[in-house]
Amino acid sequence: MNDIGMLSVSELVAGFRRLALSPVEVMCAVLDQVTRIDPRVNCLCGIDEEGALTAAREAEDRWARRSPCGVLDGVPVSVKDLVAVRGMPTRYGSFTASADAEDFDAPAVAHLRQAGAILFGKTTTSEFGNKIVTDSPLSGVTRNPWDTRRSPGGSSGGSAVAVALGMGPLSLATDGGGSIRIPACWSGVVGFKPSFGLVPEGPASSFAALSTLGPIARCVEDAALMVGVMAGPTDADRFAGVDGGRDYRIGLAESIAGLRIAFSPQPAGVRVDPSIAACVGKATWLLEVLGAHVEEVKVRPLAGYVESRMHSIQWAVLFAQRVRAMNIVQRTQLDPDLRELAAAGERVSTAAFVDALAARHTLAQEMAGFFEEYDLLATPVFHVGPPEVPGLPEALLMAPPLTSWCNQTGQPAASVPCGLTHEGLPVGLQIIGARGADALVLRAARAYEAARGPFPAPPLVRDLAESAKPQGDAS
Fold first, then answer.
1. Could you name the domain of life of the organism this protein comes from (predicted)?
2. List 139, 179, 312, 404, catalytic entry
3. 376-414 pLDDT per residue, tens
4. Would residue 473 count as lying in a domain?
5. Model's pTM, two decimal places?
6. Is 475 a member of any domain?
7. Which domain holds residue 249?
8. What is the pLDDT of residue 432?
9. Catalytic: 193?
């Protein structure tokens, strides 16, 4: 494999600035990686090769004239196929969606394009982002880069796999209950769900009540850069305390000494696999070594979260609303899991839905109080490892208990790789802050990442590197 594919954004831009790297060279390396490895993992469902190479040549010309158009000029970026990109269709992983190319960019995509990003492809998703694995009737099954027998998680699994395997350093994903953090965790990359309202959503949608856009990257610095580029005024004033339009790399390397970090090894009473718990426990110990005051706590507002089903109820009702607008033929084309989810939503009473909204309001208030006592909360991202493909085990057909509550409260949360299980699969440390404390979450994630040291590449990357060596080369 060409090492260019695994360079960070800062390394790429530094190379462009010195004219030691060319955006065309980088884009060709990414496209070559797609050709070589995507058939094994199925993480991309659309590529605009001609448009990408044209944009790369234009970026190359700007760098040659020492006049880049923005902080991402010439950097390849993929976009989850729930988000509109001009010139490409938005298929949502569904046969029911139009195959016509979009004539507009979603606001976050427009911000990326203005910063010079090359938007080269769309990444796979479960149908309309309905579940935490990435398979759909339209795109098929996406596979984990560490073990192709398993899922990378979802619904942003395509984005996580693309980034993990060097198909661009950044991907724009969405998170409606953990859909950025879970695949980032299971694929060994960084995922960041911003505070609600920080990154503009685009056209009005009921799903904006639970979902937001955010970056998946291979390092925290790149995620911080990307979220700052995407943030904008469109929706930023919808929630108090959200600070849009800033460079989140500023202050990123500052010390975390003195921060009050609560550590909940089993939030919401969920039993965490011992191998995962060990990795996360070691990570929180490292935060303490860095000078933070870490205290193991029970997060009382989450005590009844799983039993309340507040997220599951709202999620099912939103999908019932979506499916209700479809005709009979379209409904027969849907993923059976989605049909079942929508049917469950139709059975939710008005009283139950209102109760779920009231519980959400109470949780948000109680967690705001929690974060008056603590600066950050550290937890596992997920309580078990990734399931085998295809499908989703019945035990996991529920709102992800360790991540979805952050969507109820609108708080920022990051997933950072923190080790490998006994099966050699990645584990994620989740760092959560008060609403609007995005910079603090990113700073703590960066501090941990720096202290942890380099994280290994997935086996598929190592296999490609070995196969690329000339025969007889023992180096």
1. Bacteria
2. 179
3. 999 999 999 999 999 999 999 899 999 999 999 999 999
4. no
5. 0.95
6. no
7. 3-468
8. 99
9. no
